[in-house]
Amino acid sequence: MKFSLTRLALKVSVLVAGLGASTPLLSDPYCPFNGFYAGVMGGALQSTTEFSRESSAQYENFFHVPGLISSGQKDVKVYRWGGAGALNLGYGEQVGKCMFIAGEIFVSAATRDTSVSDYAYTEHNDQSLFDSFNTSLKAKTSASTQNVELAIDLRPGFLVNSCTLLYGRVGVGFNKLRTKNRVDFEYNGREASEFVGHSVQTLSTTKKSNKSALRLGLGCEWKLCPNLSLTSDYIYSYYGKAKTQRIADSTFANGEDDNFIADGFKTSSSAKMATQAFLVGIKYYFDNACCR
Domain 33-291 belongs to what topology? Predict the structure, then answer.
Protein backbone atom coordinates (compact mmCIF):
# COMPACT_ATOMS: atom_id res chain seq x y z
CA MET A 1 0.00 0.00 0.00
CA LYS A 2 2.79 2.33 0.89
CA PHE A 3 4.51 1.45 -2.38
CA SER A 4 1.35 2.28 -4.38
CA LEU A 5 0.97 5.70 -2.72
CA THR A 6 4.58 6.48 -3.47
CA ARG A 7 4.10 5.61 -7.15
CA LEU A 8 0.94 7.79 -7.34
CA ALA A 9 2.70 10.75 -5.76
CA LEU A 10 5.55 10.39 -8.24
CA LYS A 11 3.14 10.36 -11.21
CA VAL A 12 1.34 13.49 -9.96
CA SER A 13 4.67 15.26 -9.50
CA VAL A 14 5.72 14.45 -13.07
CA LEU A 15 2.33 15.67 -14.44
CA VAL A 16 2.52 18.95 -12.52
CA ALA A 17 6.09 19.48 -13.68
CA GLY A 18 5.03 18.86 -17.28
CA LEU A 19 2.15 21.33 -17.06
CA GLY A 20 4.41 23.89 -15.51
CA ALA A 21 6.92 23.50 -18.33
CA SER A 22 4.27 23.84 -21.06
CA THR A 23 2.32 26.78 -19.54
CA PRO A 24 4.20 30.05 -18.75
CA LEU A 25 3.47 31.59 -15.38
CA LEU A 26 2.09 35.13 -15.19
CA SER A 27 5.16 36.13 -13.27
CA ASP A 28 7.43 35.23 -16.24
CA PRO A 29 9.24 38.20 -17.80
CA TYR A 30 7.85 39.90 -20.93
CA CYS A 31 8.89 38.60 -24.32
CA PRO A 32 10.53 41.82 -25.61
CA PHE A 33 10.79 43.04 -29.19
CA ASN A 34 14.54 43.33 -28.71
CA GLY A 35 17.29 43.16 -31.31
CA PHE A 36 17.96 43.88 -34.96
CA TYR A 37 15.08 43.46 -37.41
CA ALA A 38 14.12 43.89 -41.05
CA GLY A 39 10.65 44.30 -42.47
CA VAL A 40 8.65 44.66 -45.66
CA MET A 41 5.42 46.66 -45.92
CA GLY A 42 2.77 47.51 -48.48
CA GLY A 43 -0.45 49.48 -48.69
CA ALA A 44 -2.05 52.69 -49.91
CA LEU A 45 -0.78 56.27 -50.02
CA GLN A 46 -2.80 59.48 -50.39
CA SER A 47 -1.02 62.57 -51.77
CA THR A 48 -2.54 65.96 -50.93
CA THR A 49 -1.31 69.16 -52.60
CA GLU A 50 -2.61 72.66 -51.94
CA PHE A 51 -2.11 74.85 -55.02
CA SER A 52 -2.25 78.64 -55.38
CA ARG A 53 -1.48 80.31 -58.70
CA GLU A 54 -1.92 83.61 -60.56
CA SER A 55 -1.41 84.53 -64.21
CA SER A 56 -2.05 87.74 -66.16
CA ALA A 57 -1.23 89.36 -69.49
CA GLN A 58 -1.56 92.95 -70.69
CA TYR A 59 -1.85 93.42 -74.44
CA GLU A 60 -2.67 95.97 -77.16
CA ASN A 61 -5.21 94.98 -79.80
CA PHE A 62 -5.70 96.26 -83.34
CA PHE A 63 -8.20 98.80 -81.95
CA HIS A 64 -5.10 100.25 -80.21
CA VAL A 65 -6.80 99.76 -76.87
CA PRO A 66 -4.88 98.12 -74.03
CA GLY A 67 -6.46 95.07 -72.44
CA LEU A 68 -5.87 92.73 -69.54
CA ILE A 69 -6.71 89.09 -68.99
CA SER A 70 -6.02 87.21 -65.78
CA SER A 71 -6.78 83.96 -64.03
CA GLY A 72 -5.99 82.47 -60.67
CA GLN A 73 -6.77 79.86 -58.05
CA LYS A 74 -6.12 80.00 -54.33
CA ASP A 75 -5.76 77.16 -51.81
CA VAL A 76 -7.11 74.49 -54.15
CA LYS A 77 -6.57 71.03 -52.66
CA VAL A 78 -5.98 68.10 -55.00
CA TYR A 79 -5.97 64.48 -53.78
CA ARG A 80 -4.52 61.37 -55.35
CA TRP A 81 -4.51 57.75 -54.16
CA GLY A 82 -1.89 55.18 -55.12
CA GLY A 83 0.00 52.14 -53.95
CA ALA A 84 3.11 52.19 -51.76
CA GLY A 85 5.77 49.73 -50.63
CA ALA A 86 8.52 50.00 -48.04
CA LEU A 87 11.53 48.25 -46.51
CA ASN A 88 12.79 48.98 -43.01
CA LEU A 89 15.84 47.98 -41.00
CA GLY A 90 16.35 48.84 -37.35
CA TYR A 91 17.12 47.95 -33.76
CA GLY A 92 14.78 47.95 -30.77
CA GLU A 93 15.20 47.59 -27.02
CA GLN A 94 12.81 47.25 -24.10
CA VAL A 95 13.25 50.00 -21.50
CA GLY A 96 12.09 49.16 -17.99
CA LYS A 97 9.07 46.92 -17.52
CA CYS A 98 6.80 48.07 -20.35
CA MET A 99 8.46 50.84 -22.39
CA PHE A 100 10.21 50.38 -25.72
CA ILE A 101 12.40 52.42 -28.07
CA ALA A 102 13.65 51.66 -31.58
CA GLY A 103 15.50 53.44 -34.36
CA GLU A 104 15.16 52.46 -38.00
CA ILE A 105 16.03 53.27 -41.59
CA PHE A 106 12.93 53.38 -43.78
CA VAL A 107 12.97 53.20 -47.60
CA SER A 108 9.65 53.65 -49.40
CA ALA A 109 8.55 53.58 -53.04
CA ALA A 110 5.39 55.38 -54.19
CA THR A 111 4.07 57.76 -56.84
CA ARG A 112 3.39 61.20 -55.40
CA ASP A 113 2.20 63.63 -58.09
CA THR A 114 -0.78 65.98 -58.42
CA SER A 115 -1.79 68.78 -60.80
CA VAL A 116 -4.37 71.53 -61.22
CA SER A 117 -5.53 73.30 -64.40
CA ASP A 118 -7.25 76.62 -65.13
CA TYR A 119 -8.68 78.37 -68.22
CA ALA A 120 -9.76 81.97 -68.86
CA TYR A 121 -11.29 83.39 -72.08
CA THR A 122 -12.41 86.85 -73.21
CA GLU A 123 -13.96 88.12 -76.45
CA HIS A 124 -14.45 91.72 -77.58
CA ASN A 125 -16.28 93.29 -80.55
CA ASP A 126 -16.40 96.81 -81.93
CA GLN A 127 -19.71 98.61 -82.43
CA SER A 128 -20.14 97.36 -86.01
CA LEU A 129 -19.58 93.75 -84.85
CA PHE A 130 -17.40 93.20 -87.95
CA ASP A 131 -14.12 93.52 -86.10
CA SER A 132 -13.38 91.46 -83.03
CA PHE A 133 -10.63 89.77 -81.11
CA ASN A 134 -10.38 87.19 -78.37
CA THR A 135 -7.76 86.26 -75.83
CA SER A 136 -7.28 83.22 -73.64
CA LEU A 137 -5.08 81.96 -70.81
CA LYS A 138 -4.52 78.25 -70.27
CA ALA A 139 -2.64 77.30 -67.11
CA LYS A 140 -1.49 74.06 -65.51
CA THR A 141 0.51 73.58 -62.32
CA SER A 142 1.84 70.24 -61.09
CA ALA A 143 3.83 68.99 -58.11
CA SER A 144 5.61 65.68 -57.60
CA THR A 145 8.41 64.02 -55.65
CA GLN A 146 10.88 61.28 -56.47
CA ASN A 147 9.35 57.82 -56.31
CA VAL A 148 11.94 56.46 -53.85
CA GLU A 149 12.33 58.13 -50.45
CA LEU A 150 14.78 57.52 -47.61
CA ALA A 151 13.78 58.25 -44.00
CA ILE A 152 15.18 57.90 -40.49
CA ASP A 153 12.65 57.31 -37.68
CA LEU A 154 12.43 56.82 -33.94
CA ARG A 155 9.70 54.51 -32.60
CA PRO A 156 8.90 54.97 -28.91
CA GLY A 157 6.42 52.35 -27.75
CA PHE A 158 4.47 50.65 -24.98
CA LEU A 159 4.33 46.89 -24.39
CA VAL A 160 0.69 45.93 -23.88
CA ASN A 161 1.66 42.33 -23.18
CA SER A 162 4.37 39.88 -24.16
CA CYS A 163 3.17 39.75 -27.79
CA THR A 164 1.66 43.20 -28.50
CA LEU A 165 3.48 46.52 -28.97
CA LEU A 166 1.89 49.94 -29.55
CA TYR A 167 4.20 52.70 -30.78
CA GLY A 168 4.45 56.17 -32.19
CA ARG A 169 6.75 57.36 -34.94
CA VAL A 170 8.69 60.58 -35.46
CA GLY A 171 11.33 61.10 -38.07
CA VAL A 172 12.54 62.87 -41.18
CA GLY A 173 12.28 61.87 -44.83
CA PHE A 174 14.60 63.01 -47.62
CA ASN A 175 13.21 63.72 -51.07
CA LYS A 176 13.03 66.28 -53.91
CA LEU A 177 9.88 68.30 -54.60
CA ARG A 178 9.40 69.23 -58.26
CA THR A 179 6.96 72.00 -59.19
CA LYS A 180 6.09 72.92 -62.77
CA ASN A 181 3.95 75.85 -63.88
CA ARG A 182 2.96 76.48 -67.52
CA VAL A 183 0.72 79.22 -68.94
CA ASP A 184 -0.26 79.75 -72.61
CA PHE A 185 -1.53 83.19 -73.73
CA GLU A 186 -3.26 83.36 -77.12
CA TYR A 187 -4.55 86.35 -79.11
CA ASN A 188 -6.77 86.10 -82.20
CA GLY A 189 -7.96 89.15 -84.20
CA ARG A 190 -10.74 89.11 -86.79
CA GLU A 191 -11.64 91.81 -89.32
CA ALA A 192 -14.71 91.36 -91.51
CA SER A 193 -14.81 87.64 -90.70
CA GLU A 194 -11.14 87.16 -91.58
CA PHE A 195 -8.30 86.53 -89.14
CA VAL A 196 -5.87 89.43 -89.25
CA GLY A 197 -3.73 88.66 -86.24
CA HIS A 198 -2.70 85.63 -84.28
CA SER A 199 -0.13 85.55 -81.51
CA VAL A 200 0.82 82.92 -78.96
CA GLN A 201 3.20 83.07 -76.05
CA THR A 202 4.07 80.47 -73.42
CA LEU A 203 5.58 80.84 -69.98
CA SER A 204 6.90 77.66 -68.42
CA THR A 205 9.07 77.25 -65.36
CA THR A 206 10.17 74.23 -63.34
CA LYS A 207 11.68 74.26 -59.87
CA LYS A 208 13.32 71.37 -58.01
CA SER A 209 14.17 71.67 -54.34
CA ASN A 210 15.53 69.26 -51.75
CA LYS A 211 13.01 68.68 -48.98
CA SER A 212 13.29 67.25 -45.48
CA ALA A 213 9.81 65.92 -44.75
CA LEU A 214 8.49 65.76 -41.20
CA ARG A 215 7.17 62.25 -40.48
CA LEU A 216 4.66 61.40 -37.74
CA GLY A 217 2.83 58.14 -37.24
CA LEU A 218 1.20 55.46 -35.12
CA GLY A 219 1.51 51.70 -35.32
CA CYS A 220 0.92 48.31 -33.75
CA GLU A 221 2.97 45.12 -33.83
CA TRP A 222 1.89 41.57 -32.98
CA LYS A 223 4.37 38.77 -32.36
CA LEU A 224 3.62 35.57 -34.29
CA CYS A 225 6.65 33.69 -32.99
CA PRO A 226 10.03 34.66 -31.51
CA ASN A 227 11.39 35.86 -34.86
CA LEU A 228 8.30 37.00 -36.81
CA SER A 229 5.68 39.69 -36.25
CA LEU A 230 2.88 41.47 -38.11
CA THR A 231 2.82 45.28 -38.30
CA SER A 232 0.22 47.93 -39.06
CA ASP A 233 1.26 51.59 -39.59
CA TYR A 234 -0.15 55.03 -40.34
CA ILE A 235 2.50 57.56 -41.44
CA TYR A 236 1.94 61.27 -42.20
CA SER A 237 4.64 63.19 -44.11
CA TYR A 238 4.75 66.96 -44.74
CA TYR A 239 7.07 68.26 -47.47
CA GLY A 240 6.52 72.00 -47.13
CA LYS A 241 5.99 74.59 -49.88
CA ALA A 242 7.63 75.21 -53.26
CA LYS A 243 7.14 78.39 -55.32
CA THR A 244 7.65 79.37 -58.97
CA GLN A 245 7.60 82.79 -60.65
CA ARG A 246 8.22 83.98 -64.20
CA ILE A 247 7.80 87.24 -66.14
CA ALA A 248 7.92 87.26 -69.95
CA ASP A 249 9.66 89.64 -72.32
CA SER A 250 7.67 92.68 -73.44
CA THR A 251 7.12 91.39 -77.01
CA PHE A 252 5.75 88.17 -78.37
CA ALA A 253 8.19 85.43 -79.28
CA ASN A 254 6.07 84.55 -82.31
CA GLY A 255 2.98 85.75 -84.13
CA GLU A 256 1.73 87.12 -87.43
CA ASP A 257 1.50 90.72 -86.29
CA ASP A 258 4.28 92.51 -84.40
CA ASN A 259 1.88 95.16 -83.13
CA PHE A 260 0.42 92.79 -80.54
CA ILE A 261 2.41 92.96 -77.35
CA ALA A 262 2.20 91.12 -74.05
CA ASP A 263 3.33 93.78 -71.65
CA GLY A 264 3.58 92.27 -68.20
CA PHE A 265 2.76 88.67 -69.06
CA LYS A 266 3.56 86.93 -65.79
CA THR A 267 2.72 83.91 -63.70
CA SER A 268 3.45 82.58 -60.24
CA SER A 269 2.49 79.47 -58.28
CA SER A 270 2.96 77.72 -54.97
CA ALA A 271 2.37 74.12 -53.91
CA LYS A 272 2.27 72.53 -50.45
CA MET A 273 2.42 68.73 -50.40
CA ALA A 274 1.69 66.14 -47.72
CA THR A 275 1.07 62.38 -47.80
CA GLN A 276 -0.71 59.80 -45.66
CA ALA A 277 0.39 56.16 -45.84
CA PHE A 278 -1.60 53.16 -44.58
CA LEU A 279 0.70 50.13 -44.45
CA VAL A 280 0.69 46.53 -43.22
CA GLY A 281 3.72 44.28 -43.19
CA ILE A 282 5.78 41.50 -41.70
CA LYS A 283 8.98 41.83 -39.70
CA TYR A 284 11.82 39.39 -39.03
CA TYR A 285 13.99 39.56 -35.89
CA PHE A 286 17.53 38.31 -36.45
CA ASP A 287 18.16 37.52 -32.77
CA ASN A 288 15.62 37.33 -29.99
CA ALA A 289 17.08 34.92 -27.43
CA CYS A 290 14.78 36.18 -24.66
CA CYS A 291 11.80 34.63 -26.44
CA ARG A 292 13.28 31.20 -27.06
Answer: Porin (2.40.160)
